[in-house]
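Figure S7 source data.
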Amino acid sequence: MSDTDTGTTVRTIDANEHGYRGFRLGEFTFTRDEYFAHIGWPTGSHVMSIDDFLRAMQRDVAWNFFYGTVNFDHVLGTVNHYGDVDLFAGTFNDSYRKAELDHLENFPHDDIMVTFRAILDEWTNEGFDPFAAPEETGSAWGDKAGGNPDAIGRRRVAAQRMVGVPGDEELRSDETGHPINRMFADVDQSEPERHPEPGFEDQVCAFNLFAYLSRSNVTWNPSVVSVCKDSLYCPTTEEYILPIIHGNDRVEWFVQLSDQIEWEVADRVTGSLRARVTMKPGDVAAMPADIRHQGYAPKRSMLLVWENASPELPELIATGRAPTYPVGL
Ligand code: PHB
Ligand code: FE
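Tokens for the predicted fe (iii) ion complex:
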């Protein structure tokens, strides 16, 4: 099978008794059955619950491999080198490394992207939305049954300047297909008053971020709502568990806008636990550049993720010319 956009080839394995095709990428193999994704490589194999696997895969694809490391779980994941991407198994897991079961291969960005997209498309059944909260989606289980191209192909919100600025990302409303989420029924929907001088209507802008977030139909999916050079405001609504364990390659700031999230913070390379952070409304945290973290949100909550998107940062931090933490004592 070849991808017409890029000319890159996706290597498939014939459909199994459950109707799902498998995939090969380098020396890795990917197959699924009714409940599980199975991943193989020359020195080992791994199994993940298919719902967790698809939720992680959805984010890796939609975020274009994100910043740094996307751990699907404690074994499998990707490292973004911004042009090419490592796919690894056990590389950031001390036990796998000691047992020499770990495996890492580097792929050109497009090769791994078209294969990951094909896996997500082939294995996501009708009614299952990997971006939705578990309460708000159908089932990932069972034999192959249709697909869900609208859900897995969502366009990511990425403002050029700011949401609501003329010509930029539009505000959300019932009319745009974004009803208020069941858990945010009490969020004030009024918009700020604006009184720009004539001629400045496209420069003096404001919007109600809480109202905007109350109408998000996805979870754990930061979207860019404002941009100032490399400074990106990426708020998101969270419910249940962040489907990946993110290994940072730069500092990230978190501002808890509503409700509560618990973060498990571990060493980025070994995975050994470093901290538990409970964030309540108004709390601010800076996640260091040498950690991995996963969030737990018992109730839908609003989180502002503040990213520094400078392409120079990973190299500066990796070579010790910039610190792994944002503020010194
Ligand atoms: C993160 O890894 O920092 C992250 C990812 C997705 C979210 C929130 C935080 O929704
Ligand atoms: Fe992160």
